Amino acid sequence: MRTNRIMLLSLLVLAFIYSCGEKDTNQNSSSQETYELVIVDSLIVDELEELQVTDYNVKTKRFLAYGTNSKDCMEVDMEGNIINRVELSGEGPGRFGTAMNGLGYFGEDKFINGMGNYFVYDEDWNYKRKSPSTNYLIPVKYISQAPKDLAYLGKTVLVQAIEHTEYGRKLAPEYFSTAKMIELLEINEEAPLALIPYPEKSIYGSDKTYYWSHQPKFAVNEAENKLYLTLPLERKLYLYNLDDSFSLDKVIDLDLTGFTAPQGIPFNDQLKNSLKGFGPENELNYVYMMTNSSIQDISTHGKMTMLKHRTGVENKSITSYEEATGLARKDSRTINSFIIDGQVVYETEENFRYPIRIDEMRFMSPDLNEAEERDYNKFYIYELRTTNNR
Questions:
Q1: CA 19 to mean position of chain CA atoms
Q2: Burial class for 268, CB neighbours closer than 10 Å (0-12, 13-18, 19+)
C-alpha cells in the first residue's frame, strides 16, 4: 500500500496517540494481558468521489465500495486499486432502481439491497436472481453495511432482524414471549424462516413495560460456527450454535461503561401521544430511543468481538423529543469496546465510521479529517494487539 511522504510520520504519531492516550479499561483475567489499538497501515484509493467501503472478502482480499454520489459499485484490492466498477442504478433486469440500502458479499456472489428487491450477482457482476424486500428507504448519503449471510442446510441465506412494530401495529403484553428475533431468507423463496425466540429472562419478556428498541444486532463468527447476538437495551451477549435449531450455547454478561437500565412505556400506551410526523407511536418511544443506553453494532472474527454502544443521558425526566435529542447530542457518549473471552479488554471513544473487519485483530475505517481537501480516499487499518511483549 502506498503512502505519501508524510504518511509514515503521521502513522507513527497516531499510533503513539492510540497506545498512550486511550485508556485500557480491562485486562484479560486469565492471562493478565493488556491491549492497545494502533494504526498499522493505510489504504489510498485514487478516486475523487467519496467512497464507502461496505464489506471485505477474506478469500480474495478485496473490498466492496459504494460511490456515495454516483451509486456505482466497485471492488478494491489491498493496494487501493479499483479492480472493477459497475453502474447498476435505474430500471431493468438486475438494476436496483433509484437507490440501494445495502451492498455486500453473499457467499461466492455479491448482493444489493435495492428498492423493493434483493439482487444477487456473480463474481463478475452478472445478474443472477432477485427476491422481494421491504426496503423502500432512500439513504441521504451513506448506506447500511453489508447484509449478513451464513450457510444453512447447505445453502447461503440472508440473515436479518425482524421488525415487530411496522406500520404502527400495537403489540399485546404477551407478544414477545413467543416472538422470534431473526429470519433467514433464501433468495428466490417467498417466505423467510423465523428463528430464535427472545431469551426467557430478557427485559423484553415483561408483560407490563414496552420497549420500542427491540431489534437485535448480530454477527456471524465463522471460526466458532456461532451467531453472536445482542439486544439494544441489554448488557448481554448471546451465543447461538449455527446448527439447524440455532440452540443457545452461552450468555455473557458484558461490563459496558456508562450502560444504565432502560426506560419503557406501559404496553397500553403504545399509540398514545404520538409525535406528529413520526408515525403513530408514543412520543416517549422516541425520547427513550435518544436517552436510553443502547448497543449500536457488533462484529466478531475469531476470538475478538467489537461492540459499539451509546451511553445515553442521565436525565430520566425528559418527555420532549426535541429536548431529548439536544441533550443526547450534548451528553451521550459512543464507546467502542473490544471483547476477548467475554471481557472488555480495551475501549475507546474514537469515531469509526462503518468499520470493516479484515481479520481477527484488524479492521479498517476511513480517515475522517474533513478539513483536508483531497482527490483520493484514505482509510486507516487498525490493529488490537497485546502490550505485554513490547
A1: 25
A2: exposed
CB of 274 within 8 A of CB of 281? yes
CB 275 within 8 A of CB 283: yes
Dist CA 357 CA 96 (whole Å):
26
Query: Among all chains, which residue has been given the C-alpha cell 427513550?
Result: 288
CA gap 146, 56 in Å, rounded = 9
Q: Which distant-in-sequence residues (6+ apart) come within 8 Å of 154 by Cβ?
A: none
Band (pLDDT 50/70/90 cuts) for residue 18 is very low
pLDDT at 364: 98
The residue among 4, 146, 160 whose CA lies nearest residue 62 is 146
Element holding 304 (H helix, E strand): strand 304-310
Cα of 172 vs its chain's centroid, Å: 29
- In angstroms, the CA 273 to CA 280 distance is 8
Please tell me the predicted confidence (pLDDT) of residue 389.
61
C-alpha to C-alpha distances, 373 to 8, 51, 368, 369, 377, nearest whole angstrom: 19, 15, 11, 9, 10
- Each residue's pLDDT tens digit, 48-65: 999 999 999 999 999 999
**Taking CA 353 as the corner, what is the angle to CA 349 and CA 356, rounded to the nearest 5 degrees?**
105
Distance, in Å, from the CA atom of 288 to the CA atom of 291, rounded to the nearest integer, reads 5
Query: For the whole model, what pTM was predicted?
Result: 0.89
pLDDT tens-digit series, residues 73-82: 999 999 999 9
Backbone angles phi, psi at 287, to 5 degrees: -60, -50
The edge-to-edge listing of strands for the beta sheet with 103-106 is: 103-106, 109-113, 117-121, 127-132
Bridge-partner residues for 95, per DSSP? none
Question: 367 CB contacts (<8 Å, ≥6 apart)?
Answer: 42, 378, 379, 380
* Residue 307, phi then psi, degrees to nearest 5: -140, 135
Cα–Cα distance between 34 and 36 in angstroms, integer? 7
Q: What would the 3-class secondary structure string for 80-124 be?
A: CCEEEEECCCECCCCCCECCCCEEEEECCEEEEECCCEEEEECCC
Distance in angstroms (rounded) separating the CA atoms of residues 214 and 202: 11
Report the alpha-carbon distance of residue 291 to residue 318 in Å, rounded.
9
Q: What pLDDT is stored for residue 390 in this prediction?
A: 59
